[in-house]
Amino acid sequence: MNDRSVSAEAPRRNFILELWSCLLGGIAALFPFLTGVAVFLDPLRRGAKAGQARFLRVATLDAVPDDGLPRQFPVIRDATDAWNYSPNERVGAVYLRRMPGESQVKAFNVVCPHAGCFVGFDAQGRFFQCPCHTSSFTLDGEVIRPSPSPRGMDPLEVRVTDEGAIEVAFVNYYPGKEARIEKN
Q1: Taking the model in full, what pTM does it have?
Q2: Are residues 30 and 105 part of one domain?
C-alpha cells in the first residue's frame, strides 16, 4: 500500500466514527430531555376530576344543635397540588344548620358569592353578612336586596351517616358570577 491510499482512507474512517459518536450522543441526550418533559407535564396528565362530589366529614349531628341557628365548621382534607401533598389541610369552612326536631342538615359555603370574603353570621339580626361589601343573606342563604352579591350563598350537598357523622360535598365556586361555576 502506498501512502496515498492510507491517507485517503483515514478521513472516511473518521467520518464514520464521528457520525456514530454524534448519533449515540444525541440518543443519550434525548433521555434526560424526555424525562424532564414528562415531569413537567405530570400535573396536567393527572388532572383534577371535575364534577365528582367527594363527601368530607365535617362534624357530628350532636355538634349541630337543632335550634335553627347556623354554626361554622372547618373543612379539612388531604390537599394535593401539582407536586406537593399536605395531609389534614384546612381547605375552607361551611355553615351547618339544623331545624328543631329534625335530623336533616343544611350546609352553605362560607365564601361570599360577591367577592370571595368569608361571610359572618349576625346572631342578633339572624342573618348572614359579608364584611367586605355588606352583602346580606337570609338564614336559608337567599340574598337580601339591595346587595352587591349576584346570587345567594352557595348550598352544599349534605348526608348524615348512620353513625351520626355529617358529611358535606365541599365545592368552591367562582365569586362575582350569577351562575354557580365550580372551581377545579
Answers
A1: 0.69
A2: no
